[in-house]
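Lecture 7 notes: from sequence to structure.

We start with a single chain of 143 residues. Read the sequence below before looking at the structure.
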Amino acid sequence: MDELDQKLLAALAADSSTSTSRLARRFKVARSTVQARIERLERTGVIAGYTVKLGQAITLRLIRATVLVQIEARSSAQILQRLKATPEVEQAHTTTGRFDLILQVAAETTQSLDETLDKIGAIPGVKATESLIQLSTKIDRAV
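Now the structure, written as tokens:
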């Protein structure tokens, strides 16, 4: 994602009804360039819809990971409480099998993701983690 993509995202976040013509004039590019960029951002999941989220800062969390977590018996409530306080943890699911939790984690940079994974591993009661960094999305029916 380059500077133009970031400008387009900021402009659409401020007013998602801004026309492609107006965006093209503002950023001094062709209307077809703006349209193609927006379509690519939608196709890759960076733009997953147009909605209002009042009171939330806009951050681009482009690096995603699935984190498998093994926990000690009777420690899930405390661990979930700590995970809720970690903004990079977007989802937490209980599961059966070798791991007890499946987390969806998103960060702005690899360094931020690394720090988040270290925080998760250091939570009292966490026995082990395994991280799977997502490279690309091939199917996304959640949108």
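The chain has a mean pLDDT of 87. Keep this in mind for problem set 3.
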